[in-house]
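User: Working on a comparison across species. This one is DUF4383 domain-containing protein from Streptomyces siamensis. Can you predict its structure so I can line it up against the others?
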Amino acid sequence: MLAIGAAVLFFISFLINAADISTNDTFTSTNIMLIGLTVLALHLAGVGTGWSSRRRR
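Assistant: Here's the predicted structure for DUF4383 domain-containing protein from Streptomyces siamensis:
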């Protein structure tokens, strides 16, 4: 699920950059891309996978 969120953030970043949309300093394409990279890193680290360390009997 986090990978899908990262892909959406990358797409929004691409649209802002490709359309040359002027945004304020918070929502620049670079900042959105960095948030997407953070979400992707969390996905690769296994956060939000739903796996638990407890075994069910």
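For your comparison, note: The CA atoms of residues 10 and 33 lie 6 Å apart.

User: Helpful, thanks.
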